[in-house]
Amino acid sequence: MPLHSHPPLSVFSRLRTRIATATLCASLVFAATQSQAQDSDAPAPKVSIAAAYTEEITDEAVFIGRGEAIDKVDIIARVNGFLDEKLVDNGVPVEEGQLLFRIEPDLYEATLVARRADLDRAQATLELRTVELARKEELLKREAVPVSERDIARANELVAEAEVKSAKAAIQQAELDLSYTEIHAPFAGRIGRVAISEGDVVGPNSGPLVNLVRDAPIYVTFSLNEKQLITVLEQLNQTADTLVESGKSPDVFLTLSNGTELEEAGTIVFIDNRIDPLTGAIALRAEFQNTEGLIVDGGFLQVRIQALEPVTRVLVPQAALQRDQRGDFVLVVTDKQLVEQRYIQTGDSYDNAIIVLDGLREGESVIVEGLQRVRPGVAVDAVTASYGD
Predict the structure, then answer these.
(1) Domain check: are 373 and 319 in the same one?
(2) How far apart are CA 198 and CA 195, in angstroms?
(3) Is 334 or 240 the better-scoring residue by pLDDT?
(4) Is the pTM of this model over 0.70?
(5) d(CA 100, CA 183)
(6) If we measure between CA atoms, which residue out of 195, 174, 186, 201 comes closest to residue 104?
(7) How does strand 210-225 pair with strand 182-184?
(8) Is it the case that residue 24 has pLDDT exceeding 70?
(9) In terms of domains, do 85 and 195 share one?
(10) Most confident of 15-29, 73-87, 265-279
């Protein structure tokens, strides 16, 4: 046997591995210690902060509405005949009573002349029958004729009176028919495309000549579901009855399809008396003067109903708002200059700010610049930022 024995090669390998691992751990501990020392010596990151503030805001609810003309009508010829004149162009505004079309009147003028002649004949017959009745009554007093002849004369007079009434009625009908040869605008508004040409035969069964719409004032109709209606009434502290009363109706504003917000305010003039069982919605109607003519019958608009009284709300600049999987939050700087993550409940945007419904108080400071340089729990060097007044 040899005097000295050597350990196996694997033992030396394990020993070298343990030494290297211990050396690496010591290096990492030293590096971490150095990093912490450097962090403690580094200055606090600078951030810009803004204080949450309050402002009186008039709440509003937003819906989709549609323009609806107060008056619109298809103008139809009431008598048959050739269209003699077309006195209006496509799409032009017209005044109430303005002459639009004229149907050839010759036939109706001739008919009126004939009806007047019938009246003259009937009146002459009545005069004759009246004279005959007077003569028969005189002869009856002398007992020169039987009673039956007097009765026949009286009946003839009654028939003649009826013929006079019929002739007068026929004249009225003829005058009406003649008046219908001139077609006037029943109200002021704007006409659409004229569907006929001069020389066409028109009549009650030939279809509309043109469509006329009154576009000022105009209605905007929109619908709310039951939950929205209750919410609006609660916010406005109103009932369906008082909402349309004079002086109590909230202002209604419109946004056109191109994003233009109309300055003109409308008022609610109608709330339906029932919820449609098919749609679960109830119809409301607001009236606008439409002085600029931008609200069009059938056009879609965004409707905004404003509350009667403003409400005090907490606001913060939109730059302070962040979001993660849990929801909206802001980074608050406490009195000790430490960053605190605060989840909040937000409302609508207001100018360059966001309404905070819950989670933040007036005067608390939120970070608006330097958000990427901080995290919750660290100390910061905060300076007040300037933002829109």
Answers:
(1) yes
(2) 11
(3) 334
(4) no
(5) 6
(6) 201
(7) unpaired
(8) no
(9) yes
(10) 73-87
